[in-house]
Amino acid sequence: MALLMHAAFFLLLGASLTRFLMRHPGETRTPWIIALSAVLAVLYLLGPVLGSRPTPRRLTWLGVLVVVWMVLVVLAPSFAWCAVPLFYTGLRILPPRAALALVALLTVFVVAAQLRLATGFDPNLVLAPPAVAAVATAVFVHMQRQAVRQRDLAARQRELIDDLLRTRRDLAATERREGTLAERQRLSMEIHDTLAQGLSSQQMLLQAADRSWDTDPATARRHVLTATGIAERNLAEARRFVHDLAPADLAEGGGLEAALHALATRETSQARGRLTVRCHVEGVPAAALPDRVQSALLRIAQGALANVTEHAEATVAALTLTHLGDRVVLDIADDGRGFDAGRPASRPPEGVRGHGLPAMRARVQQLGGTLTVESAPGEGTVLSAAVPLPHPNTAPTAPPAPEERA
Questions:
Q1: What is the pLDDT of residue 121?
Q2: How much is the pLDDT for 325?
Q3: How many whole angstroms separate alpha carbon 262 and alpha carbon 277?
Q4: How far apart (Å, rounded) are the C-alpha atoms in residues 358 and 164?
Q5: Is 312 exposed, middle or buried (0-12, 13-18, 19+ CB in 10 A)?
Q6: Would you kindly state where each structural domain of the chain is located, as residue ranges?
Q7: Which residues of the chain have pLDDT under 50?
Q8: Of 94, 133, 350, 392, which has the maximum CB count within 10 A?
Q9: DSSP codes joined into one string, 200-213
Q10: Short-list 305, 221, 288, 228, CA closest to 254
Q11: Residues 303-344: pLDDT tens digits?
Q12: Which residues contact 365 (CB under 8 A, 6 or more apart)?
């Protein structure tokens, strides 16, 4: 719009000067008309340089421009139609009331100039300039309001975009924090079920070897060899943590059943006759168990057998894996001294292991299952972990656990 008005101003100025020179050749006022036209053109060119804000310099420039135009209109009424671009310039720079006053003043000059050019009174010459001024003002005001609405809409959109980006950043930060906490909990359970249990067993064996070193070297040697075997398993687990955090028994192939049989054989061998661990599998799975289910059940079996070895004083323990179609159940039973399962567990003192059952329960709950413990003093303990399985034709909706993603 500004470029259009600039072009219209110079076009009207040139046409008015040409009309004057054609109608009034050789008059004494001609040099003044030409000079004032040049001054008016130069002044108009200075407008964009001064900017669009109503600064004192800008207002002074507008006043001088209007005065020069008025002088031209008094000397040559042909220059009256240059008022239309001046309407636009005044409306852009001045406040609304001052701009309307300027438009009214320019319109009066236009009407007076048209009446001077006419040979007689013509109502159209009185009504047309105000109509043109009203239309020009209405168009400008409408465009200005549209521009304001567009700016407001753009500002609101920027605010909404900023809010959306801020919300996304907050959500991403929250998800990272939750993921970090979940990963820490998972790693703590992994370390408890493998390295911590192995180190505890090694400590017990080495302490027993130290006590019998002088009196029974053969027994001490067996304890040391057993501790060496446990250290080898712990080393394999530690390397598996670094590689992909999957249980070493599962990584060797054969699935959960083979891993449980290997676990039972290993625990029996390490106990040196003090504990016999049997493994039994019932039923056939309709489909391969998800990796996260296999990993969780194997870790639960490892943790439960570690508790049996350390606390139960049992002679026989049994691992039973039962496939029931819509769920899989792992039972770990022993004939140890048992405990009161109905009594709330007390917080272990500093440095004492007591993370086993909470870790097992957390693993099962992450899979949507349940963990039950049945025990009584002198009657042994049965720990049962039941995990539901998705239908073979139903795609899982939950995201893979961090253990699988590793």
A1: 64
A2: 83
A3: 10
A4: 39
A5: buried
A6: 2-121, 170-340+355-405
A7: 346-354, 395-406
A8: 133
A9: HHHHHHHHHHHHTT
A10: 288
A11: 899 889 888 889 999 999 999 988 999 999 999 998 887 765
A12: 371
Under DSSP, the state recorded for 329 is E
Residue-level pLDDT at 370 = 94
Whole-angstrom distance, CA of residue 181 vs CA of residue 183: 5
What residues does 277 pair with on adjacent strands? 317
Q: Could you tell me which residues are beta bridge partners of residue 276?
A: 316
What pLDDT does residue 349 have? Answer: 43
The sheet that has 381-388: what strands, in order across it? Answer: 276-282, 316-323, 327-334, 381-388, 370-375
Superfamily of domain 170-340+355-405: Histidine kinase-like ATPase, C-terminal domain (3.30.565.10)
Strands 370-375 and 381-388: antiparallel
Whole-number Å distance between alpha carbons of 66 and 84? 12
Provide the pLDDT for residue 403: 39
- Long-range contacts, stretch 357-365, CB < 8 angstroms, 24+ apart: 357/307, 359/188, 359/189, 359/192, 359/193, 359/303, 360/299, 360/300, 360/303, 360/304, 360/385, 362/185, 362/189, 363/189, 363/296, 363/299, 363/300, 364/296, 364/300
Amino acid at 329: V
